[in-house]
Amino acid sequence: MSEKQLKIAYFLSTGLFCLMVLPGAIADLVQPQVAVDMMVTLGLPLALLTLLGIWKLLGVVAVLLPNTNRIKEWAFAGFAFDLTGASYLHGAAGDWAGVVPPLVILAVGAGAYATWRMRSKAAAEQASAT
User: Containing H/E element for 46?
Assistant: First the structure.
């Protein structure tokens, strides 16, 4: 994959991932009735919504900021925990329709992570070659 193709793949996958995560973060903070009902169905405390919303917003910022490799790595890991946990909890509560969407978002996030790592590796190789 050329450097230009990698750059395009990175920006598309990262942008799409952030656009997919951001509405959930906002919903967690605003707490519309549908989000409250979901937490009650899953048997989770409502206070968790605010915390998850803050973490998701900070994660989006970390993923989008340049030159924050360590923080970006942690943000992607946090999203993986959040999204796999959401999928599991939906399944455990019998909400089978809620199992797949977090996994789809996770797959897009994995693509964003992979392209970010490839770009970082290419940049490091180019820097060491000069």
Answer: none
The tokens describing 116, both together, are: 């970010």
What DSSP state is assigned to residue 97?
G
Provide the domain count of the chain. 1
Alpha-carbon gap, residue 99 to 87, rounded angstroms: 4
Residue pair 18/64 in contact by the 8 Å Cβ criterion: yes
pLDDT, position 33 = 96
Alpha-carbon separation of residue 38 from 32, 41, 66 (angstroms): 10, 5, 35
Tell me the pLDDT tens digit for each residue of 54-84: 999 999 999 999 989 999 999 999 999 999 9
Domain coverage including residue 24: 3-129
Of the chain, the percentage scoring pLDDT greater than 70 comes to: 99
Q: pTM of the full predicted structure? A: 0.90
